[in-house]
Amino acid sequence: MPGAGHLPAAGLRADAGIDAALRDLRWLLLSPPLLAPGRHPAAVQRFDADDAQAISAWLDALARQPAPLAAFLEQIGPAPLRLGRRAERLLEFFLRHGPTHRLVAANLQLRHAPDEQPGIDHTTRGEIDFLLEDRAGQGWHWELAVKFFLCTAAGPVARPADFVGPDRAETLPGKLDRLFGRQLALTPPPPWDGRDWRPAAYARGWMFYRHDQAVPACTALAPGHLHGWWVEHGRLAELPEGPWLGLPRSRWMAPARCGDAAALCTRAQIGAAIAAAWQAPPPPGVRRWPSAQLVARMAPAGDGGWEEVGRGFVVPDGWADGAR
């Protein structure tokens, strides 16, 4: 296994496997929302039962006949995409081809007017992710957030301030402020400015908690949000023997699958690989190093491959103290 910090970032490409793109798309559409409804300044997007059923049937049909998704991936090109950008493109594909919503506009760049910044009328002041309509004809402004935070709280209750990103460069309060206070507050430019667009946060992701404690309650988060664990490197012996699979950032969304048993590791091997990765230069895009490394515990699947049965971050010893 290569160092966990340097696992190949396959990106969203046709040659990266249509199955992986289908799994990520299914996860993005049908996984539970991350944020609690009624606890934030704008709506939290959640598909109702009828929409979820229609989306599930559409995904099943797409898996049988994936040509539209394959063509979409070909249009993207061979360059790898960041996880967030990949999620945006997959959600755009759904809005263009899915059964329940209709895309009106995507990635609208908002620029400063000349009177806002005299002489500088070309600067961007923001971007709207998606304008769309639902089946009832209601217009929506969606902002997408796919996030992964580790909770440092040690008791039964957690505050948003207890959640930090894997490289400690982002916090949950900071993201919520940007999402609700800035991104969803943007108004569409002409010709879309004459319509009522309801803002909603399309938030998906995983939260990770101390491996030896119960999941604490946090009123900002949806009760059924996806969650895993985190553990300090020096306490890896408290985890099962394995097998384990290191997950590059490009594969953090959907639960992992693996067809090659040779890619799996024992607990000792995954620990050694992570320690070696932390001694190397940081991967591109990582702002603070060493950062937490995501691993999945794997089990045999019915098709002869391996599937994820749990996931968690391995962090440097003392990481939580530095994250506060």
UniProtKB/TrEMBL annotation:
Stored Pfam families: DUF1853
Protein name, UniProt field: DUF1853 family protein
